[in-house]
Design brief:
11 helices; three-stranded antiparallel β-sheet; alpha/beta; Rossmann fold; six-stranded mixed β-sheet
Length: 286
């Protein structure tokens, strides 16, 4: 028998008292051990979806399951299996970074080594600095460290590397790669598409609370969206552009010279931006 999904979302909906629909009937599943990226512009409904799955926000309709449990009705034992890195931090305590990590580690039965987490999140040099004296980016690293210290079965990462410098981001990616190899399920929201491309097995794209696509990371948007673009200028200076699955054959078949010839293979960012720009508004979707 195949393993049950680690996370399951069916026709999820969230509407506020003002009438605003933040999440409009989205569905997806995440397999155990999979890293799944939730992509979309600000206000798309990503954080609302994640907060519902974390148990911090109620849903208006639909169904949600995390490790087989309704996140609106969880227990202490279930919560010990979940790791969370929120988009914003709580007020920083007057304790050192290592003290904070050791305290949180003591709350979990399958805790990760504190020194390992300090190194992986780039906090070794700040280990004896009080958390409330750290910079914003360093506090963000502490948030990530606290999210992974309990060796969770499911890890929610909501914009985890905001404020990280390039070196810290790479260290974080290495940590997530390690966590993936241990079998942890990861749900990631990020605005860094290179981060999604590096870490995620699959992705879902959301705009205006509606799901646009769910697919493996290198198949998002479908085949046509990833068809290479051939661009050139002819003898008369006229600019030409067309999509083709066989650029070499198209070039051989062209009569006359082709100046400033380019073969452009759409990246994940190209595909994503096209999807977002052509997504229907909430009213059109309705």
């Amino acid at each position: 028998m195949p393993a049950a999904p680690a996370i399951e979302v069916r026709d999820l909906r969230k509407q506020y008292a003002t009438g605003k629909v933040a999440v409009d009937g989205i569905s997806f599943t995440i397999d155990p051990g999979e890293t799944f990226a939730l992509l979309g512009p600000n206000g798309a409904g990503k954080s609302t979806t994640v907060e519902i799955l974390e148990g911090f926000r109620s849903r208006t309709g639909g169904d949600a399951r995390v490790l087989g449990h309704d996140p609106a009705r969880t227990s202490r034992s279930h919560n010990a299996r979940i790791g969370i890195v929120l988009q914003t931090s709580a007020e920083s305590p007057n304790v050192t970074v290592s003290e904070q990590l050791r305290h949180f580690a003591s709350l979990y039965p399958r805790r990760r080594d504190v020194e390992e987490v300090l190194a992986a999140t780039g906090l070794t040099e700040q280990r004896n600095v009080r958390v409330n004296r750290l910079s914003g980016g360093q506090r963000r690293r502490v948030d990530v460290a606290l999210g992974v210290i309990g060796r969770p079965e499911v890890l929610f990462l909501d914009e985890p590397t905001t404020g990280f410098d390039p070196e810290a981001r790479r260290q974080f990616w290495n940590l997530i790669d390690t966590i993936k190899h241990e079998g942890t399920t990861v749900l990631l929201t990020t605005h860094y598409l290179d981060e999604a491309a590096h870490l995620a097995d699959r992705a879902a794209v959301i705009a205006n609370g509606r799901l646009l696509d769910v697919a493996p990371i290198d198949e998002i948007g479908g085949t046509e969206a990833r068809t290479p673009v051939l661009r050139w200028r002819d003898d008369a200076g006229v600019q030409h552009e067309e999509r083709t699955h066989d650029a070499a054959a198209r070039i051989r078949a062209t009569v006359g010279p082709m100046y400033d010839l380019e073969v452009i293979r759409p990246s994940l960012e190209d595909v994503y931006l096209t999807m977002i720009q052509t997504a229907p508004t909430s009213e059109e979707g309705a």
